[in-house]
Amino acid sequence: MKAVILVGGQGTRLRPLTINTPKAMVPVLNRPFLEHVIDNLSRHKAREITLAISHLAQPIKDYFGDGSRFGVKLNYALEKAPLGTAGAVKNSERHLDEIFLALNGDIFTDLDITAMMDLHRRRNAKITIALTPVDNPTIYGLIETNAQGRVMRFLEKPSWSQVTTNMINAGTYLLEPDVMAYIPFQTKFSFEHELFPLLLERDVPIYAYPSSAYWLDIGTPEKYFRLNKDLLSGRGGQYGLSSGQEVVVGEKSHIHSTAQITGPVVIDNNCTIGERVRLTGPVVIGHGSVILDDSVITESIIWQAVNIGNRVKIKDSIITNDCHLGDGSIVEEAVLGDHVTVASGYKLKAGSKIWPGTTVG
Ligand code: GTP
């Protein structure tokens, strides 16, 4: 099976995480998000994957290269300007000459793609759309089907009075290549607003594959946070840690014997954890980060090369690459972009989102 992953979005809602880092590259358990997605596709025997990119392409190409390190062949389809979800797939057409999977690159799912493919074939569908249940369908695209699973109606971001189902578009589609004929070339065109309504009008068979497999999009810092916590707590299907209590420590990381670590905690390589430091999971510490004596970190995600001084308190926060937190500083319910410095003794206002390169305090 071939696949195309849409990784060309701006990721505006995930700022400041995505100001210097493409959404696809934000780390989840210390690996780029996209690596988890590619791993899952590879498990389902996708051997050739095209990345549809427009924004911040270089870091993605530098990391993934030709894909051989990840057991797949990778192609890149670059857009000069973003073409929208369906337009981006059209732009990848030269690599998609047989049935293929198209997926939003900001979704983490344990979906059984093989079972979805079986259903697609049995129904003779032109498109099969994965559906997932959510608590609040009003912020998503809702999909109504008949008793055979054929899609009858699409409703984007419905009001509560319009809600007839909690099954939403999970951003994962199987497509027959002849569907491409309906997508204009080099034109901004979306699956949700343009292609699907057009295909319904033309009576093209679209089927739905409902699934209650783990599913979460990392569209906002809150959801990115939740994904990390879910994976650390053993709630991400077959991904992440299994027991929910584990402590995983990478190579050449030094943890002082007086540090107290309560899992789930993942510490990457080359980290230093000082005397009497307390880590209470879910916590992730990225490559080369240093935490000095008596600091307390609770339920937080720390990216790479972060320097945390003595007696620092961090709770419910995301601290991205190369931040520096001075001695005695307090950071709670905050999101810090790259290269942020928090002055010694300063208490950051809860709920702060700090832009890269800023010094606070
Ligand atoms: P926001 O700016 O926060 O809405 O995020 P986003 O830009 O990622 O948009 P959205 O969440 O709607 O996109 C869903 C998926 O489609 C993401 O994986 C995006 O990377 C991808 N995507 C959205 N628009 C484009 C586009 O024009 N081109 C490509 N290649 N991918 C896109």
Short note summarizing the structure:
The protein has 361 residues and is an alpha/beta fold. It contains 6 helices and 30 strands.
Task: Characterise this structure.
The structure is a single chain. The chain is of the alpha/beta class and 361 residues long. The longest helix is centred in the middle third of the chain and has 12 residues.
* Amount of beta strand: 25-35%
What structural class is derived from the secondary structure elements?
Answer: alpha/beta
Bound molecules: guanosine-5'-triphosphate
**Low-confidence spans:** none
Q: Into which percent range does the helicity of residues fall?
A: 10-25%
Number of strands: 30
Largest sheet, described in full?
Answer: 10 strands, parallel
So what's the overall shape? elongated
Contiguous helical run count? 6
Name a few traits of the molecule:
alpha/beta, 7-stranded mixed β-sheet, 361 residues, 6 helices, binds guanosine-5'-triphosphate, single chain, 30 strands
List the helices and strands and how they pair.
Elements: E1 2-6, E2 27-28, E3 31-32, H1 33-43, E4 48-53, H2 57-64, E5 73-78, H3 84-90, E6 100-104, E7 107-109, H4 113-123, E8 127-133, E9 141-145, E10 151-156, E11 167-175, H5 191-201, E12 206-210, E13 215-217, H6 221-232, E14 247-249, E15 254-255, E16 260-262, E17 265-267, E18 272-273, E19 278-285, E20 290-291, E21 296-302, E22 307-308, E23 313-315, E24 318-319, E25 324-325, E26 330-332, E27 335-336, E28 341-342, E29 353-354, E30 359-360
Parallel strand pairs: 1-4, 1-6, 4-5, 8-12, 14-17, 15-18, 16-19, 17-19, 18-20, 19-21, 20-22, 21-23, 21-24, 22-25, 23-26, 24-27, 25-28, 27-29, 28-30
Antiparallel strand pairs: 2-3, 6-11, 7-13, 8-11, 9-10
Helix pairs in contact: 3-5
